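Bug report (template v2)

What were you trying to do?
Predict the complex of my protein with NAI.

What happened?
Run completed; filing so the output is reviewed.

Input:
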Amino acid sequence: MKITFFGAKSYDRESFNRISGQYPQLEMEFREAELSPETAYYIENSEAVCAFVSADLGTKVIHILHERGVKLILMRCAGYNNVDLDTASEFGIKVMRVPEYSPEAVAEHAMALALAVSRRLHKAYFKVKENNYSLNGLEGKNFYGKTAGIVGTGKIGAAMARICRGFGMKVIACDTYPRKDLDFIEYVELDELLATSNLVSLHCPLTADTYHMIDIEAIKKMRNNVVLINTSRGGLIKTEDLIAGIREEKFFGVGLDVYEEETCNVFENHEDDIMMHSTTARLLSFPNVIITSHQAFFTEEALSAISETTLNNAMAYLKGENTDTELN
Ligand code: NAI
């Protein structure tokens, strides 16, 4: 079976090619272009496509995939809010994903952002590089003894909760389905979490219910000097309201690995381009905001797990086996 990869970077090729010998039944074609209504026409004689978080797998693209004879969409990521599952199902196109590749990779990045922003590492790095050893502007805050509020205690949220516990924090959380195994967590309602947490970290998926869950009303409920971290999906936070909250000095720091306008930025080098998104520029202008470009997953261990599960998904499809990685 031929699989056409979209949005394939050098590191994707390397990690898939490293294990390709174990899957002689699979032929892989790598395309750097992102999947979109324009690029979907590139597909030729491929029963499967493999795509990542910033691919467009909306209704139009699914129609084109169907016309091109695609029967299988292999998402090489956990999130699938960019896939029109209903239309895929209508056309009998199976969609599979990698539900878990390294929750710890994402949680460790969330804590890295929290620490960096709260200890002003982003400023310290450049100051020292410029031979400036003054501590002005670098005063941070301890996490030890403070309260961490985890929104969504699935695989990544649970890993983040464990890290926060290790830092000596009290850990509270909210989740539609509280877990009994995380006995060190106190579950509360979102409003209470926002009102009492010194660190709020978002780990729930983007759905109709969670879209813009952090808007100006939610921000007003937060305690002053809170650190807000989002490694989940940009749409959880209403950016305009976040900017308003930052201007009102609500936050000690904000760390974003994802943000609403990221799609045209993610994984691309735009260093010679004029920045077209004023919201991104405004976010970047604040001294207490750190943005990374959807890199929380990006570790050697996670890439290996992604390639292995994706190719195992393709093999399960070929053998007609059911797996818990199917989305429809
Ligand atoms: P998961 O499915 O294991 O956990 C999500 C949790 O959120 C579940 O426990 C669910 O009950 C809870 N939840 C759903 N709606 C909620 C609500 N309204 N309020 C509170 N909790 C709610 O997912 P996992 O693997 O932990 O991933 C979480 C998110 O992280 C993914 O949806 C994805 O968007 C994002 N992600 C980001 C990556 C990155 O590189 N930045 C990499 C991988 C995932």
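What did the reviewer find?
The pocket of NAI is lined by residues 78-79, 103, 106, 151-157, 174-177, 203-206, 209-210, 231-233, 257-258, 294, 296-297 (CB under 6 Å). DSSP finds eleven helices and twelve strands in the chain.
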